[in-house]
Amino acid sequence: MIVDQLNVFIHEMMKAAQTLTPKPSEYLVFNNPDESNDQWYILIFFPDASQQNEAIKNGVCYQIHKFVWDSMSQSNDFKGLNKTILFESGTIPKEEKEVHKIISEAIKKSESLLKEQGQTNPEICSICGHPFGGHQAMGIPDEVSGVPTGGWMTCSEENCNCFRTWDMQVIQ
Q: What burial class does residue 155 get, using C-beta atoms within 10 Å of its C-beta: 0-12 exposed, 13-18 middle, 19+ buried?
């Protein structure tokens, strides 16, 4: 089953990520059976909001996101799989009701991002609700061109854990 393959893959990624600072603590993989496109969600948790914030700001979340996204896109087992990778803080709740709440919030966040795609100059961030203009884009230079061709965006509001990725193609 795909969920078993995803769990093995993410478990191995979590072991490798233990060298990062701060390091993720646990993960949750689920599928939304209500969606016609068979969307899979990977929630990666940091122990608390301050560690999640640090991981967002220093690029750890981006490194994890890029590794998971690229590896899954290149794998025959996961090629073409619709996936959403999100970062959370705290622990996976023990009570089923609270797990469903986290799942529902992740689905809503993903749907907001999809609705926002293609919009030019949104005024308000669909993830955190802060003014979008205050978000900061960061990137890592491409080895060939020396220009950042991908990276992450984060909210400039203190203690906001908004995270999104961006990428572009360099035409030569």
A: buried
Specify the DSSP element, H or E, that contains 36: none
State how far the Cα of 129 lies from the Cα of 155, in Å rounded to an integer. 10
Other CB atoms within 10 Å distance of the CB of residue 112: 12
Rounded to whole angstroms, the Cα distance separating 140 from 7 reads: 28
Mean pLDDT of the chain: 89
pLDDT digits (tens, 9 = 90+) for 60-111: 999 999 999 999 988 888 988 889 999 999 999 999 999 999 999 999 888 8
**pTM for this model (two decimals):** 0.88
């220093």: which residue's tokens? 58
The C-alpha atoms of residue 86 and residue 107 are separated, in whole angstroms, by 10
Question: How many C-beta atoms surround the C-beta of residue 171 within 10 A?
Answer: 4
Answer for the pair 157, 163: CB distance below 8 angstroms, yes or no: no
pLDDT in tens, 120-142: 778 889 889 999 999 999 998 88
User: Residue 93, SS3?
Assistant: coil
Alpha-carbon distance values, 28 to 25, 89, 91, 99 (Å): 11, 12, 10, 10
